[in-house]
Amino acid sequence: MRKRRYEMLLPLKYNDSRSIENDKIYLTREELIARFDSISILPGLVQGIWVHKGTRYEDDLLRVIIDVEDIPENHDFFVTYKSLLCERFEQVEIYIASYPVDII
């Protein structure tokens, strides 16, 4: 069965180093489960380091994986959802990647 995998990196700290409230992570998790029925959150932290407009950011992140039907409506959801996440987590960018997967 052909699906599309979306992987997102959710920050655990705001850009000013304050910890992100657990309820924001929980809300995001529950929104994705309600829409797609399942998600995976990989254990351990992902450390991200990147430069944007001359400012260096060092992030501790959670890696979230969602496998969904490869249809335009799901792609459109993630494009829109990314904007909401940037606002919710007060981020310049939220990294979301997608690629096709074959479920065996």
Q: Would you kindly provide a written description of the structure presented here, covering whatever features stand out?
A:
With 104 residues, this protein is α+β, with helices and mostly antiparallel strands. The chain has a single domain, classed as 2-Layer Sandwich (Alpha-Beta Plaits), CATH 3.30.70.120. Strands 1, 2, 3, 4 and 5 form a five-stranded antiparallel β-sheet that branches. Strand 3 and strand 4 form a beta hairpin.
Defining traits:
2 helices; alpha+beta; 104 residues; 39% strand; 5-stranded antiparallel β-sheet; globular; 5 strands; Alpha-Beta Plaits
CATH architecture, please?
2-Layer Sandwich
Number of domains: 1
User: Which structural class is indicated by helix and strand composition?
Assistant: alpha+beta
Number of strands: 5
Topology summary:
Layout: E1 2-11, H1 22-36, E2 40-41, E3 46-52, E4 55-68, H2 72-88, E5 95-102
Antiparallel strand pairs: 1-4, 1-5, 2-4, 3-4
Give a quick rundown of the structure.
The chain is α+β, with helices and mostly antiparallel strands. The chain is 31% helix and 39% strand.
